[in-house]
């Protein structure tokens, strides 16, 4: 019973940034890569890492309808979805903010933080 209570208290947090936020001088890219990978390794070692990565901006999105029709491009009214994403599972928003700050420091840009709604069936 205690284990179940602990699991349900955890939430998944999306930490992300748009590509335009990455304004990094050319000579710092190697350090950004090293530092950002180090933070991800720390999250993995801490057991909080779920997944992460960046949107492949060379492959355009497609919009798929319920009948299977495919149209090139996303929603025309929505801002483009690009940049990098990390999903961590953490017990509190405060811990999520602390990890977002570590990622922001490593990536040299601010991070957006969002929490996924809990769905027991997902």
From TrEMBL:
UniProt keyword annotations, A-Z: Signal
Domain of life: Bacteria
Keyword Signal found: yes
Signal sequence range: 1-21
SUPFAM superfamilies: Dimeric alpha+beta barrel
Name the UniProt record assigns to this protein: YCII-related domain-containing protein
